[in-house]
Amino acid sequence: MKKKGRVLVAMSGGIDSSMAALFLHEQGYEVIGITMKTWDYATAGGSKKETGCCSLDSINDARSLAVANGFPHYVLDLRQEFGDAIINNFVDEYLAGRTPNPCVLCNTYIKWDALLKRADQLDCEFIATGHYARTRFENGRYILSKGLDDTKDQSYVLWGLTQESLKRTIFPLADLTKKDVRKIATEKGFADLANKSESYEICFIPDNDYRGFLRRKVKDIDTKAGEGDFVLADGTVIGKHKGYPFYTIGQRKGLEIAVGEPLYVTKINVDTNTVILGTLEDVKQQKMNVKKINLIKYDKLPENFQSVTRIRHKDAGAMSTVNQEDENSVDVFFHTKVSAIAPGQSAVFYEGDDVVGGGIIEKAIL
Question: What CATH code is assigned to 284-364?
Fold first, then answer.
Protein backbone atom coordinates (compact mmCIF):
# COMPACT_ATOMS: atom_id res chain seq x y z
CA MET A 1 0.00 0.00 0.00
CA LYS A 2 1.30 3.42 -0.93
CA LYS A 3 1.78 5.53 2.17
CA LYS A 4 0.11 8.95 2.33
CA GLY A 5 2.93 10.40 4.39
CA ARG A 6 4.58 10.02 7.76
CA VAL A 7 2.59 11.25 10.76
CA LEU A 8 3.55 11.52 14.42
CA VAL A 9 0.53 10.69 16.58
CA ALA A 10 0.23 11.79 20.20
CA MET A 11 -0.99 8.69 22.07
CA SER A 12 -2.14 9.07 25.66
CA GLY A 13 -3.29 5.47 26.00
CA GLY A 14 -6.96 6.48 25.96
CA ILE A 15 -9.56 5.52 23.38
CA ASP A 16 -9.52 8.78 21.38
CA SER A 17 -5.81 9.00 20.64
CA SER A 18 -5.52 5.24 20.20
CA MET A 19 -8.27 5.14 17.59
CA ALA A 20 -6.83 8.25 15.91
CA ALA A 21 -3.54 6.39 15.45
CA LEU A 22 -5.31 3.24 14.24
CA PHE A 23 -7.48 5.14 11.72
CA LEU A 24 -4.44 6.84 10.19
CA HIS A 25 -2.57 3.54 10.06
CA GLU A 26 -5.48 1.93 8.21
CA GLN A 27 -5.75 4.90 5.83
CA GLY A 28 -2.21 4.33 4.62
CA TYR A 29 -0.20 6.82 6.64
CA GLU A 30 3.16 5.79 8.04
CA VAL A 31 2.35 6.20 11.73
CA ILE A 32 4.78 6.81 14.55
CA GLY A 33 3.23 6.89 18.02
CA ILE A 34 4.52 9.06 20.82
CA THR A 35 3.40 9.38 24.44
CA MET A 36 4.32 12.53 26.31
CA LYS A 37 5.18 12.15 29.97
CA THR A 38 4.33 15.56 31.38
CA TRP A 39 3.73 14.86 35.03
CA ASP A 40 4.74 12.45 37.79
CA TYR A 41 1.94 12.70 40.31
CA ALA A 42 3.66 10.43 42.82
CA THR A 43 6.19 13.18 43.56
CA ALA A 44 3.49 15.70 44.47
CA GLY A 45 1.37 13.77 46.95
CA GLY A 46 -2.38 13.76 46.83
CA SER A 47 -5.09 11.29 47.77
CA LYS A 48 -5.62 9.59 44.43
CA LYS A 49 -3.27 7.30 42.55
CA GLU A 50 -1.70 8.40 39.30
CA THR A 51 -4.11 8.10 36.40
CA GLY A 52 -4.61 9.42 32.89
CA CYS A 53 -2.09 10.22 30.20
CA CYS A 54 0.98 10.24 32.44
CA SER A 55 0.49 6.92 34.23
CA LEU A 56 2.61 3.86 33.52
CA ASP A 57 -0.52 1.90 32.61
CA SER A 58 -1.49 4.48 29.99
CA ILE A 59 2.00 4.51 28.47
CA ASN A 60 1.93 0.71 28.29
CA ASP A 61 -1.54 0.74 26.70
CA ALA A 62 -0.33 3.12 23.99
CA ARG A 63 2.79 1.06 23.32
CA SER A 64 0.81 -2.21 23.18
CA LEU A 65 -1.55 -0.87 20.52
CA ALA A 66 1.37 0.43 18.45
CA VAL A 67 3.26 -2.86 18.66
CA ALA A 68 0.14 -4.88 17.82
CA ASN A 69 -0.34 -2.84 14.66
CA GLY A 70 3.27 -2.80 13.59
CA PHE A 71 4.23 0.83 14.01
CA PRO A 72 6.90 2.32 16.32
CA HIS A 73 6.18 4.04 19.62
CA TYR A 74 8.29 6.39 21.72
CA VAL A 75 7.97 8.06 25.13
CA LEU A 76 8.94 11.72 25.36
CA ASP A 77 9.80 13.01 28.84
CA LEU A 78 8.52 16.59 29.13
CA ARG A 79 8.28 16.82 32.90
CA GLN A 80 10.88 19.57 33.19
CA GLU A 81 9.32 21.73 30.46
CA PHE A 82 5.82 21.06 31.79
CA GLY A 83 6.83 22.04 35.31
CA ASP A 84 8.55 25.23 34.17
CA ALA A 85 5.81 26.40 31.82
CA ILE A 86 2.55 24.96 33.15
CA ILE A 87 2.88 24.16 36.86
CA ASN A 88 4.72 27.37 37.70
CA ASN A 89 2.18 29.43 35.75
CA PHE A 90 -0.69 27.62 37.48
CA VAL A 91 0.70 28.48 40.92
CA ASP A 92 1.69 32.04 39.99
CA GLU A 93 -1.74 32.81 38.55
CA TYR A 94 -3.59 31.70 41.68
CA LEU A 95 -1.17 33.71 43.82
CA ALA A 96 -2.01 36.69 41.60
CA GLY A 97 -5.73 36.22 42.30
CA ARG A 98 -6.44 34.86 38.83
CA THR A 99 -7.93 31.58 37.53
CA PRO A 100 -5.62 29.79 35.06
CA ASN A 101 -6.50 27.28 32.37
CA PRO A 102 -3.49 24.94 32.21
CA CYS A 103 -4.91 22.75 29.41
CA VAL A 104 -4.83 25.66 26.96
CA LEU A 105 -1.23 26.53 27.80
CA CYS A 106 -0.19 22.89 27.67
CA ASN A 107 -1.67 22.39 24.21
CA THR A 108 -0.12 25.58 22.86
CA TYR A 109 3.31 25.66 24.44
CA ILE A 110 4.06 22.06 25.40
CA LYS A 111 2.24 19.45 23.34
CA TRP A 112 2.22 21.06 19.90
CA ASP A 113 5.64 22.58 20.29
CA ALA A 114 7.10 19.24 21.41
CA LEU A 115 5.25 17.28 18.73
CA LEU A 116 6.42 19.55 15.90
CA LYS A 117 10.03 19.47 17.08
CA ARG A 118 10.03 15.68 17.34
CA ALA A 119 8.15 15.40 14.04
CA ASP A 120 10.96 17.31 12.33
CA GLN A 121 13.54 15.02 13.91
CA LEU A 122 11.67 11.96 12.65
CA ASP A 123 10.96 13.41 9.18
CA CYS A 124 7.21 13.45 9.80
CA GLU A 125 5.16 15.71 7.56
CA PHE A 126 2.20 15.75 9.93
CA ILE A 127 1.24 15.44 13.56
CA ALA A 128 -2.10 14.11 14.82
CA THR A 129 -4.08 13.98 18.07
CA GLY A 130 -7.37 12.51 19.26
CA HIS A 131 -9.02 15.89 19.81
CA TYR A 132 -12.57 16.39 18.60
CA ALA A 133 -12.00 19.35 16.30
CA ARG A 134 -11.77 20.08 12.57
CA THR A 135 -9.46 22.04 10.28
CA ARG A 136 -9.67 23.30 6.71
CA PHE A 137 -7.76 25.64 4.42
CA GLU A 138 -9.72 28.66 3.17
CA ASN A 139 -8.82 32.15 1.91
CA GLY A 140 -5.16 31.53 2.50
CA ARG A 141 -5.54 30.50 6.14
CA TYR A 142 -5.84 27.29 8.12
CA ILE A 143 -9.07 27.41 10.09
CA LEU A 144 -9.97 25.54 13.26
CA SER A 145 -13.62 24.54 13.80
CA LYS A 146 -15.71 22.68 16.33
CA GLY A 147 -15.78 18.91 16.17
CA LEU A 148 -18.91 17.17 14.92
CA ASP A 149 -19.77 15.97 18.44
CA ASP A 150 -20.97 19.03 20.38
CA THR A 151 -20.72 17.13 23.67
CA LYS A 152 -17.02 16.39 23.08
CA ASP A 153 -15.94 19.45 21.08
CA GLN A 154 -12.44 20.52 22.18
CA SER A 155 -11.88 23.55 19.97
CA TYR A 156 -12.02 25.84 23.02
CA VAL A 157 -8.72 24.52 24.41
CA LEU A 158 -7.00 24.74 21.01
CA TRP A 159 -7.39 28.47 20.33
CA GLY A 160 -3.66 29.05 20.86
CA LEU A 161 -2.56 26.98 17.86
CA THR A 162 -0.67 28.91 15.21
CA GLN A 163 -1.08 28.77 11.46
CA GLU A 164 2.09 26.66 11.21
CA SER A 165 0.74 24.23 13.82
CA LEU A 166 -2.65 23.90 12.10
CA LYS A 167 -1.01 23.45 8.70
CA ARG A 168 0.61 20.23 9.88
CA THR A 169 -2.15 18.92 12.18
CA ILE A 170 -4.59 16.11 11.43
CA PHE A 171 -7.65 15.44 13.62
CA PRO A 172 -8.78 11.92 12.63
CA LEU A 173 -11.87 12.08 14.87
CA ALA A 174 -13.12 15.36 13.36
CA ASP A 175 -16.26 13.91 11.80
CA LEU A 176 -17.05 11.29 14.42
CA THR A 177 -18.97 11.33 17.68
CA LYS A 178 -17.68 9.73 20.84
CA LYS A 179 -20.41 7.11 20.47
CA ASP A 180 -19.11 6.32 16.96
CA VAL A 181 -15.56 5.95 18.23
CA ARG A 182 -16.57 3.58 21.03
CA LYS A 183 -18.64 1.50 18.62
CA ILE A 184 -15.81 1.22 16.08
CA ALA A 185 -13.30 0.34 18.81
CA THR A 186 -15.56 -2.45 20.02
CA GLU A 187 -16.10 -3.77 16.48
CA LYS A 188 -12.34 -3.85 15.93
CA GLY A 189 -11.81 -5.94 19.06
CA PHE A 190 -10.81 -3.16 21.46
CA ALA A 191 -13.72 -3.50 23.89
CA ASP A 192 -11.48 -2.84 26.91
CA LEU A 193 -10.32 0.38 25.30
CA ALA A 194 -13.87 1.38 24.38
CA ASN A 195 -15.00 0.94 27.99
CA LYS A 196 -11.97 2.60 29.53
CA SER A 197 -12.96 5.32 31.99
CA GLU A 198 -12.11 8.92 31.18
CA SER A 199 -10.58 11.51 33.47
CA TYR A 200 -11.97 15.03 33.42
CA GLU A 201 -9.68 16.50 36.07
CA ILE A 202 -6.55 18.54 35.42
CA CYS A 203 -3.90 15.91 34.65
CA PHE A 204 -1.59 16.93 37.48
CA ILE A 205 -4.45 17.14 40.00
CA PRO A 206 -6.26 13.80 39.61
CA ASP A 207 -7.87 14.15 43.03
CA ASN A 208 -9.42 17.43 41.78
CA ASP A 209 -8.19 19.27 44.90
CA TYR A 210 -6.32 22.27 43.53
CA ARG A 211 -6.24 23.90 46.97
CA GLY A 212 -4.36 20.92 48.39
CA PHE A 213 -2.04 21.04 45.38
CA LEU A 214 -1.27 24.73 46.03
CA ARG A 215 -0.53 24.00 49.67
CA ARG A 216 1.91 21.25 48.70
CA LYS A 217 3.63 23.41 46.10
CA VAL A 218 3.77 26.64 48.15
CA LYS A 219 4.87 25.62 51.63
CA ASP A 220 4.53 29.17 53.04
CA ILE A 221 1.24 29.93 51.31
CA ASP A 222 -0.42 30.85 54.62
CA THR A 223 2.24 33.51 55.12
CA LYS A 224 2.07 34.80 51.55
CA ALA A 225 -1.69 34.63 51.14
CA GLY A 226 -3.30 33.51 54.37
CA GLU A 227 -6.52 34.30 56.16
CA GLY A 228 -8.19 37.58 55.28
CA ASP A 229 -11.55 39.32 55.16
CA PHE A 230 -14.67 38.56 53.17
CA VAL A 231 -16.15 41.97 52.35
CA LEU A 232 -19.12 43.37 50.51
CA ALA A 233 -18.71 45.92 47.71
CA ASP A 234 -19.14 48.79 50.21
CA GLY A 235 -16.28 47.46 52.36
CA THR A 236 -18.40 45.88 55.08
CA VAL A 237 -16.52 42.93 56.61
CA ILE A 238 -18.79 39.88 56.88
CA GLY A 239 -16.38 37.07 57.68
CA LYS A 240 -12.97 35.50 57.24
CA HIS A 241 -11.62 33.61 54.23
CA LYS A 242 -8.91 30.93 54.27
CA GLY A 243 -6.60 32.58 51.75
CA TYR A 244 -7.50 34.39 48.54
CA PRO A 245 -5.81 31.85 46.18
CA PHE A 246 -8.42 29.30 47.25
CA TYR A 247 -11.30 31.22 45.64
CA THR A 248 -12.37 31.97 42.07
CA ILE A 249 -14.67 34.54 40.50
CA GLY A 250 -18.26 33.28 40.50
CA GLN A 251 -17.70 30.76 43.29
CA ARG A 252 -20.67 30.19 45.59
CA LYS A 253 -20.05 26.83 47.24
CA GLY A 254 -17.46 26.41 49.94
CA LEU A 255 -17.52 29.99 51.20
CA GLU A 256 -18.71 28.81 54.62
CA ILE A 257 -20.55 32.03 55.29
CA ALA A 258 -24.27 32.61 55.81
CA VAL A 259 -26.00 35.97 55.52
CA GLY A 260 -29.52 34.96 54.55
CA GLU A 261 -29.01 34.98 50.77
CA PRO A 262 -26.60 33.27 48.36
CA LEU A 263 -23.34 35.17 47.90
CA TYR A 264 -20.75 34.80 45.15
CA VAL A 265 -17.13 35.83 44.75
CA THR A 266 -17.20 38.95 42.58
CA LYS A 267 -13.58 40.15 42.92
CA ILE A 268 -10.27 39.21 44.53
CA ASN A 269 -8.05 42.00 45.84
CA VAL A 270 -4.54 40.62 46.27
CA ASP A 271 -3.08 43.85 47.67
CA THR A 272 -5.48 43.93 50.62
CA ASN A 273 -5.96 40.16 50.87
CA THR A 274 -9.71 40.56 50.61
CA VAL A 275 -12.32 38.53 48.76
CA ILE A 276 -15.30 40.64 47.68
CA LEU A 277 -18.71 38.96 47.74
CA GLY A 278 -21.99 39.96 46.17
CA THR A 279 -25.29 38.68 44.79
CA LEU A 280 -25.75 36.72 41.57
CA GLU A 281 -26.55 39.98 39.82
CA ASP A 282 -23.31 41.50 41.13
CA VAL A 283 -21.24 38.72 39.53
CA LYS A 284 -22.73 39.43 36.10
CA GLN A 285 -20.83 41.86 33.87
CA GLN A 286 -20.92 42.98 30.27
CA LYS A 287 -17.45 44.05 29.17
CA MET A 288 -13.93 42.67 29.42
CA ASN A 289 -10.42 43.13 28.11
CA VAL A 290 -8.63 40.11 26.61
CA LYS A 291 -4.87 39.95 26.00
CA LYS A 292 -2.28 37.51 24.54
CA ILE A 293 -4.46 37.23 21.45
CA ASN A 294 -4.02 34.54 18.82
CA LEU A 295 -6.14 34.99 15.68
CA ILE A 296 -6.86 31.98 13.50
CA LYS A 297 -9.56 32.74 10.94
CA TYR A 298 -8.46 36.30 10.18
CA ASP A 299 -5.12 38.07 10.43
CA LYS A 300 -6.94 41.10 11.87
CA LEU A 301 -10.48 41.46 13.17
CA PRO A 302 -12.93 43.68 11.27
CA GLU A 303 -14.20 46.64 13.29
CA ASN A 304 -17.14 45.85 15.58
CA PHE A 305 -16.77 42.13 14.89
CA GLN A 306 -19.81 40.09 15.93
CA SER A 307 -18.89 36.87 17.71
CA VAL A 308 -20.21 34.23 20.07
CA THR A 309 -17.66 34.43 22.88
CA ARG A 310 -17.06 31.62 25.37
CA ILE A 311 -15.36 32.39 28.69
CA ARG A 312 -15.19 28.82 30.05
CA HIS A 313 -14.75 25.39 28.50
CA LYS A 314 -18.34 24.31 29.13
CA ASP A 315 -19.75 27.78 28.51
CA ALA A 316 -22.38 27.89 25.74
CA GLY A 317 -21.14 31.33 24.75
CA ALA A 318 -22.91 34.67 24.32
CA MET A 319 -23.21 37.13 21.46
CA SER A 320 -20.70 39.95 21.70
CA THR A 321 -19.03 42.78 19.81
CA VAL A 322 -15.25 42.41 19.68
CA ASN A 323 -12.94 45.31 18.88
CA GLN A 324 -9.24 44.82 18.41
CA GLU A 325 -7.22 47.42 20.30
CA ASP A 326 -3.85 46.22 19.00
CA GLU A 327 -2.26 42.93 17.91
CA ASN A 328 -2.20 41.75 21.52
CA SER A 329 -5.49 43.01 22.94
CA VAL A 330 -9.24 43.14 22.28
CA ASP A 331 -12.21 44.59 24.15
CA VAL A 332 -15.34 42.45 24.27
CA PHE A 333 -18.82 43.87 24.86
CA PHE A 334 -21.46 41.21 25.54
CA HIS A 335 -24.95 41.98 24.26
CA THR A 336 -26.36 40.70 27.56
CA LYS A 337 -24.64 40.36 30.91
CA VAL A 338 -22.67 37.16 31.51
CA SER A 339 -21.76 35.53 34.79
CA ALA A 340 -18.29 35.19 36.28
CA ILE A 341 -15.76 36.82 33.97
CA ALA A 342 -12.61 35.41 35.57
CA PRO A 343 -9.19 36.93 34.81
CA GLY A 344 -6.79 34.20 33.74
CA GLN A 345 -9.41 32.12 31.95
CA SER A 346 -9.54 31.85 28.17
CA ALA A 347 -11.95 33.80 25.99
CA VAL A 348 -12.58 32.14 22.63
CA PHE A 349 -14.37 33.86 19.75
CA TYR A 350 -16.57 31.88 17.35
CA GLU A 351 -18.14 32.66 14.00
CA GLY A 352 -20.56 29.82 13.48
CA ASP A 353 -18.51 26.68 14.14
CA ASP A 354 -15.22 28.40 13.32
CA VAL A 355 -12.73 29.53 15.95
CA VAL A 356 -11.90 33.11 15.06
CA GLY A 357 -9.28 33.24 17.78
CA GLY A 358 -8.85 33.58 21.51
CA GLY A 359 -6.88 35.08 24.34
CA ILE A 360 -6.51 35.33 28.10
CA ILE A 361 -9.02 37.39 30.04
CA GLU A 362 -7.16 40.31 31.57
CA LYS A 363 -10.03 41.93 33.48
CA ALA A 364 -13.70 42.68 33.53
CA ILE A 365 -14.49 46.33 32.77
CA LEU A 366 -17.18 48.05 34.77
Answer: 2.40.30.10
